[in-house]
Amino acid sequence: MDIDVRVIPQLLSMILQLISTLILFLVLKHFLHEPVSKFMNERKNKIQSDIDNAKALKEEAIELKSEYEAKISEAKAEGQEIIESARKRGEEIKEDIINEAKVEADGIIDRARKEIDREKEKALDEIKLQAGDMALLIASKVIDEELDVNLQQDLINKFIDEVGTDKWQN
């Protein structure tokens, strides 16, 4: 058996190999390079579009978030205003009730004072009448004589005028 070992390849075989590789390259380039490049560019554009859409959505979400936070802040402020307004209204109602109660109490006190004054005057008049009768009785017993009507009336009036004064009490 003879084995032929060649270290240098045959030139013809090598040239054919190169030509077939070149033809294969050109055929693949012609049929595959264009569609694959187109597909890769479309894929690249789609990915870039998706990234841009994601950025736009993110910006929109950030904008919406800030709008919602502003609305929440406004709602909290409005709630505080409502609470403050209700508190002030409650204070006003409280003050009105207190003032009405004071006015009513003052009216009751005034009516009571007037009633007391009327009762006092009535009691003083009654005391004057009774004192006059008693004074007349005492005077008639002391004098032991009959007084005429005019003198009796003058004594009663004088006594009534002096009742309640310092002269009468001394």
From TrEMBL:
A cellular component annotation (GO) from this entry: plasma membrane
Key words of the record: ATP synthesis, Cell membrane, CF(0), Coiled coil, Hydrogen ion transport, Ion transport, Membrane, Transmembrane, Transmembrane helix, Transport
Residue runs in coiled coils: 40-78, 102-129
GO MF entries: proton-transporting ATP synthase activity, rotational mechanism; proton-transporting ATPase activity, rotational mechanism
Main location: membrane
Entry keyword Transport: yes
Pfam families per record: ATP-synt_B
Membrane topology label: Single-pass membrane protein
Places the protein is found: Cell membrane; Endomembrane system
InterPro entries: ATP_synth_B-like_membr_sf, ATP_synth_b/b'su_bac/chlpt, ATP_synth_F0_bsu_bac, ATP_synthase_B_chain
Keyword Mitochondrion: no
Transmembrane segments: 12-32
Function: Component of the F(0) channel, it forms part of the peripheral stalk, linking F(1) to F(0). F(1)F(0) ATP synthase produces ATP from ADP in the presence of a proton or sodium gradient. F-type ATPases consist of two structural domains, F(1) containing the extramembraneous catalytic core and F(0) containing the membrane proton channel, linked together by a central stalk and a peripheral stalk. During catalysis, ATP synthesis in the catalytic domain of F(1) is coupled via a rotary mechanism of the central stalk subunits to proton translocation.
HAMAP family, A to Z: ATP_synth_b_bprime
Record's subunit section: F-type ATPases have 2 components, F(1) - the catalytic core - and F(0) - the membrane proton channel. F(1) has five subunits: alpha(3), beta(3), gamma(1), delta(1), epsilon(1). F(0) has three main subunits: a(1), b(2) and c(10-14). The alpha and beta chains form an alternating ring which encloses part of the gamma chain. F(1) is attached to F(0) by a central stalk formed by the gamma and epsilon chains, while a peripheral stalk is formed by the delta and b chains.
Family from the record: Belongs to the ATPase B chain family.
The protein's name in its UniProt record: ATP synthase subunit b
Organism: Anaerosalibacter bizertensis
